[in-house]
Amino acid sequence: PPRVPPLRFHINLRAGAGGDVLLHLNPRPGEGSVVRNSRLGGHWGSEERELPHNPLQRGRYFDVSAGGPGGGRAGAGPRPPPAPPPQLSIRCGNHRFKVFAEGQPLF
Fold first, then answer.
1. What is the pLDDT of residues 53-82, one digit of tens each?
2. What is the residue-wise DSSP string for 56-100?
């Protein structure tokens, strides 16, 4: 069978017009990791890759939702199957955020 290239995408939560990225998420299913980082004042921080479990698996549908003022929602992949897909939720406050996978905190 033909080799399917890995899915590549990233999510950036930005603050203001200055280009700061408060949270950069880059799932890498082929590596079994989700790279996390931030870019403040024009400089990227240290990458983090360790997770208690990786909710984003190759071939599995997932749902990404973000809450906060104005809300927001983005989905990726084909239409969801009848069973509920794994959830990745980003909950934002004024000075912090929390990321959950299937209801469990990741970081």
1. 777 776 666 666 655 444 444 444 455 444
2. --TT--EEEEEESTT--EEEESSSPPSSPPPEEEEEE-SS-EEEE
Distant-in-sequence, close-in-space partners of 90: CB < 8 Å, separation ≥ 6: 11, 13, 23, 64, 65, 66, 67, 97, 98, 99
Q: CATH number for the domain including 26?
A: 2.60.120.200
Condensed to tens digits (0 to 9), the pLDDT of residues 84-98 reads 555 667 666 556 667
Q: How many domains does the chain contain in total?
A: 1
pTM of the model: 0.58
* Residue 5 in domain: no
